[in-house]
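An instance follows:
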Amino acid sequence: MSSTQSLVALIKAELKSQGLSYAELAQALGLSESSVKRMLAPGGEMPLSRVDEICRVLNLDFAELAGRLVAQAPELRELSLEQEKAVVASPVLLLVAICCLSHWALEDVLARYRVSEADAIAALAKLDRLGVIELRPHNRYKLKVAKTLRWRPQGPVMQFFRERVMADFFAGGFDGEGELLTLVHGEFGAGHARELAERLQRAADDFARQHLLDQKLPPSEKRPYSVVIGLRSWVFEAFRDLERPGLGQRKGEIGSARGAVRLGG
C-alpha cells in the first residue's frame, strides 16, 4: 500500500471510530457527498490542504496523523549479512534498493537514472526475493523494512559507505541552504549515552516522516537531502597519542561521545 493509500485508510478508520458519515464530513467541508466518496476512493486525489481540513473536522493534529502513518511502517530495521552482501554486489541493485527505501516509484527511478527498464524491474524482483520489498502488480511494491533501516555496523553496505561514499559526502562545505555539520565531544555515563542514542534515532525517524509528508510536493519544490548521525565512544587519534599512560583506555570506557549530523543535498 502506498503512503497515500495508507493515509486515506487512516482517515476512513478515524471517521468510523468517531461515528462520522461521508455525508457529515461532506457538510463540514462544504462539499457534496459524492465528492468526498471520490476523494476517499482508491486512486482518488486529495491535496494537502484538504487533509488539513479533514484533520480539523476530526479534531486531529496533522502531525499526529502523520505519526500514525509512520507507526504502521514495518519493524524490520536490519538485514541479514547474506541480504546485505547481495544488495551491495550490484550497483544497480543497491541504487534501486536505496530508491525503494525512499518510496520511489519505478517511473521515478527511470526518469532520474540511466538504468534500463528491464534492469530496474529485475532489481525489484531480486529485492522481492531477498525480502526487502513485496513486489505487486504493475511493478508497484510494499516496503518490508523500515525506511530508517540500520545497516550492519561492520557489514558489506557500511564497508561500501566507508570506501565509496563517506569521503564524497564529507567533502561538501555544509554551507548551503538547510545544511548543517556539527561535531560535539564530551564524557558521560553509558546510561546517558544510550538515552542520547535513542533521541538521535527519533531524529532519524522525524527525517523519514518529513520525507513521506513532502512526497506530494511537485519536483520543482523538492531537493535531495541526506542525514548522517553518528555516536560512538571515541577519542581523536592525534589526541590519544598525547594522553598520559594508563588514561586512554579509561576515557574510552567512560564514554567519550562524538556526534556528526549533516543535512545537505
Summary: The longest helix spans residues 190-213. Strands lie at 133-135, 141-143, 180-187, 226-233, 256-264. The mean pLDDT is 84. The radius of gyration is 22 Å.
